[in-house]
């Protein structure tokens, strides 16, 4: 079985200011030294230069929360993949439900953004997940496949392995009601199995995250699941002590896996 080190990504959404960002990033740097797990911080775009200044040449990566599918042009208010790359970004979040629900992104445009991110040398973190209504109707499998397939169509199955997939049930985001570890495992196992139908090696290699009300109290149970390779952390990334606890849990699980 492939040894996939845990990845923990802070999605700080539209939060933070220069002093708060500095405290957060400096604390994460200090408290996660010598860890086996991987970490990344995605601040709002105006703070990417600050992230670059504080995190460059360190073990903590940084990235954007969104990007255009275009490299340049008359797209007022948008940020291109080349701009993210210029500020040293490693990651970019693609298709977060908060953008999908406002109509900014579709399944198809997420495929285009994923492809553009790879072309620019970025690692896209593709967010997929169902609404509460879809969950109650038992349509989760259909939804995640519908959201994943356009990406595979755009980049091909082997290139998919260069990205990350984050399963974030919309009913769990910001509600304090995380999916059960069993549900997260079932869906991520299904996603890995769907990918495996096309390429077993890609399925084994690709990093799959869970996101949605992850906190220090449930992170260990969630990330102990065999197909949960880490977390995309929203609310808990606004409290540095909580985020560091989640990072420590991820590191302990990564160290245990490495020793096995």
From TrEMBL:
Q: Which residues form a coiled coil?
A: none
The main place the protein resides is cytoplasm
Q: Which compartments does it reside in?
A: Cytoplasm
Q: Which InterPro entries match?
A: Aldolase_TIM, TIM_sf, TrioseP_Isoase_bac/euk, Triosephosphate_isomerase, Triosephosphate_isomerase_AS
Residue numbers binding substrate: 11-13, 174, 213, 234-235
PANTHER family, A to Z: TRIOSEPHOSPHATE ISOMERASE (PTHR21139:SF42)
- NCBIfam families, A to Z: tim
Task: Give the protein family.
Answer: Belongs to the triosephosphate isomerase family.
Instruction: Supply the name of the protein.
Output: Triosephosphate isomerase
* Source organism phylogeny: Bacteria, Pseudomonadati, Pseudomonadota, Betaproteobacteria, Nitrosomonadales
């Amino acid at each position: 079985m492939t040894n996939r080190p845990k990845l923990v990504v802070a999605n700080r959404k539209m939060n933070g200011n220069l002093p708060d960002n500095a405290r957060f990033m400096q604390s994460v740097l200090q408290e996660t030294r010598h860890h086996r797990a991987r970490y990344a911080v995605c601040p709002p775009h105006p703070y990417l230069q600050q992230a670059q200044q504080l995190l460059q040449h360190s073990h903590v990566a940084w990235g954007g929360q969104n990007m255009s599918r275009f490299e340049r042009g008359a797209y007022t208010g948008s940020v291109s993949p080349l701009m993210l790359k210029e500020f040293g970004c490693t990651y970019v979040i693609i298709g977060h439900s908060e953008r999908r629900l406002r109509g900014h992104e579709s399944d198809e445009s997420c495929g285009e953004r994923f492809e553009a991110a790879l072309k620019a040398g970025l690692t896209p973190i593709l967010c997929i997940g169902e609404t509460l209504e879809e969950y109650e109707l038992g349509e989760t499998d259909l939804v995640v496949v519908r959201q994943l397939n356009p990406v595979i169509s755009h980049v091909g199955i082997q290139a998919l392995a260069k990205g990350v997939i984050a399963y974030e049930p919309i009913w769990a985001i910001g509600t304090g009601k995380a999916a059960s570890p069993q549900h997260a495992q079932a869906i991520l196992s299904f996603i890995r199995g769907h990918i495996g139908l096309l390429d077993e090696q890609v399925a084994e290699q690709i990093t799959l995250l869970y996101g949605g009300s992850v906190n220090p109290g449930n992170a260990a149970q969630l990330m102990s699941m065999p197909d949960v390779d880490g977390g995309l952390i929203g609310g808990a990334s606004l409290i540095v002590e909580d985020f560091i606890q989640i990072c420590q849990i991820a590191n302990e699980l990564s160290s245990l896996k490495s020793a096995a």
